[in-house]
């Protein structure tokens, strides 16, 4: 399709990737990091519906391209494809993963394996991000791509707390869209 479109084509979101969101996420971390190599944790969170892995996959791709300490935490059975996990540390204990973290990114994703692909096999609400878990971190900044199911993915106290940067993260979606548009316009001049 791209070869014959005659116009620039870019993916805003697909089932496996969400490049505009993940670039906004990277920009946000870069703006808020206080050290060269922050610990960034991508945590699975419960949701009643099966959501695609696009945000988690794209976020993992960017994090693996940085020198950040990158940890992915989720219940067993919710592994991401190895091509996206890359060099990340995978930790099945959410509490252990949160220890000393500088950024916590909460996101739900569905099962990847062939037999149950796209299904919800676990809505364990103990995986919700709350103040108690955030207290294990290095006063981590909380991230989510929005919209969010409050008191399922994250507690009100965390998303409304002073360490929540979800609004700034959402604003950076404009930055990522501008970067794509700039490249499209530059290539057509």
Structure in words:
The protein has helices at 2-5, 19-32, 54-64, 82-85, 94-98, 131-134, 156-159, 166-187; strands at residues 39-44, 69-73, 89-91, 103-107, 141-143. It has 189 residues and is α/β, with parallel strands linked by helices. The chain has one domain (2-187): Rossmann fold (3-Layer(aba) Sandwich). A five-stranded parallel beta sheet has the order 3-2-1-4-5. Strand 4, helix 6 and strand 5 (141-143) form a beta-alpha-beta unit. Helix 2 (19-32) crosses helix 3 (54-64). The model has no long low-confidence stretch (mean pLDDT 92).
Name some characteristics of this structure.
Rossmann fold, 8 helices, 36% helix, 12% strand, globular
Topology (elements, then pairings):
Blueprint (H helix, E strand, L loop, with lengths): L1 H4 L13 H14 L6 E6 L9 H11 L4 E5 L8 H4 L3 E3 L2 H5 L4 E5 L23 H4 L6 E3 L12 H4 L6 H22 L2
Parallel strand pairs: 1-2, 1-4, 2-3, 4-5
Helix pairs in contact: 2-3, 2-8
- Give start-end ranges of low-pLDDT stretches: none
Oligomer: single chain
Query: Kindly state the mean pLDDT as a whole number?
Result: 92
Range of helix content: 25-40%
* Strand proportion: 5-15%
Question: Main beta sheet: strand number and arrangement?
Answer: 5 strands, parallel
How big is the Rg? 17 Å
CATH architecture: 3-Layer(aba) Sandwich
So, the CATH homologous superfamily? Aspartate/ornithine carbamoyltransferase
What is the CATH class name? Alpha Beta
Number of domains: 1
What is the string of SSEs from the N terminus onward? HHEHEHEHEHEHH
Treating each run of at least 4 consecutive H or I residues as one helix, how many helices? 8
The strand order across the widest sheet is 3-2-1-4-5
Query: In one word, what is the shape?
Result: globular
- Measure the end-to-end span: 22 Å
How many beta-strand elements? 5
CATH topology: Rossmann fold
- Class of secondary structure makeup: alpha/beta
């Amino acid at each position: 399709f791209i070869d014959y479109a005659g116009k620039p084509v870019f993916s805003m979101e697909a089932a496996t990737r969400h490049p505009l969101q993940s670039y906004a996420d990277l920009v946000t971390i870069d703006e808020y990091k206080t050290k060269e190599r922050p610990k960034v944790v991508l945590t699975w969170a419960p949701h009643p519906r099966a959501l695609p892995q696009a945000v988690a996959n794209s976020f993992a791709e960017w994090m693996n391209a940085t020198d950040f300490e990158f940890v992915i935490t989720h219940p067993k059975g919710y592994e991401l494809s190895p091509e996206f996990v890359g060099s990340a540390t995978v930790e099945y204990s959410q509490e252990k993963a949160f220890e000393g973290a500088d950024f916590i990114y909460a996101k739900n994703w569905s099962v990847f394996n062939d037999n149950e692909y796209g299904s919800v096999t676990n809505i364990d609400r103990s995986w919700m991000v709350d103040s108690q878990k955030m207290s294990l971190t290095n006063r981590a900044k909380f991230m989510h791509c929005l919209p969010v199911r409050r008191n399922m993915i994250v507690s009100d106290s965390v998303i409304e707390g002073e360490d929540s940067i979800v609004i700034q993260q959402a604003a950076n979606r404009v930055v990522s869209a501008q970067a794509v548009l700039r490249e499209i316009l530059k290539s057509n001049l």
